[in-house]
TrEMBL record:
It comes from Caenorhabditis brenneri (Nematode worm). Keywords: Signal. This is Uncharacterized protein. Residues 1-20 form the signal peptide.
Length: 202
């Protein structure tokens, strides 16, 4: 039976060292939530595997030993894996079997994929995150209303997602998909798509 799931991360790897070991509790949506119609099968297909905290820092230019640092915010990156084959939508990157080997390793069956349809019940929904001992101030992040900026509080696919509380005009947290863009100079990670935030506001 599908029930609310709480994940507890006891040790958090910090990109910018914070000299602290923290506790993060993640509560996933359950069958009695307003968003249950999107998540009924979510735990069968998707699982959160990684959680990382990044500290955004601004340095004042000057001599290295005299530079001052200003903490300008914290960003959370969430890693999600697919437990089994699922269809989310059109593949928007160039798939290379020689690199990914999803077909060779039996994870992806092209014949079955032809017959699959997108199922809106396969999302997972992070309702709430409690962050203790990781940042200078503890935080309780509430994303229980999955219809806020719909569907940006639902996770529908494997991959990396960034939760950004700091630099968004509404002051409300939501998630953006991260992906690797190999065609830019030396390649780099992109967050969301071009003008994504402007599209949401409009």
């Amino acid at each position: 039976m599908f029930v609310n799931t709480i994940l507890v991360v006891f040790f958090i790897s910090i990109i910018q060292p914070l000299n602290a070991k923290g506790l993060i509790e993640i509560e996933l949506g359950g069958p009695n939530d307003k968003c249950a119609k999107y998540t009924r099968l979510g735990n069968d297909y998707l699982a959160i595997t990684h959680f990382r905290v990044l500290e955004s820092v601004d340095y004042v230019k000057g001599e290295v030993d005299k530079s001052t640092r200003t903490d300008s915010g914290y960003f959370f990156i969430i890693g999600v894996t697919a437990k089994k084959q699922m269809l989310y939508g059109p593949i928007d990157y160039r798939y290379n079997e020689n690199i990914w080997k999803l077909i060779q390793n039996g994870f992806l069956d092209p014949e079955k994929l032809k017959k699959q349809k997108f199922n809106h019940e396969q999302h997972i929904h992070i309702k709430r995150m409690t962050v203790n001992g990781v940042m200078p101030e503890d935080d309780d992040i509430d994303m229980s209303d999955c219809h806020f900026l719909f569907p940006n509080r639902l996770i529908a696919d494997q991959g990396l997602y960034m939760l950004d509380e700091v630099q968004r005009g509404t002051g409300q947290p939501f998630m953006m998909k991260m992906y690797y863009e190999p065609y830019l100079t030396e390649g780099r990670m992109e967050i969301g798509r071009t003008n994504h935030w402007q599209d949401i506001q409009n």
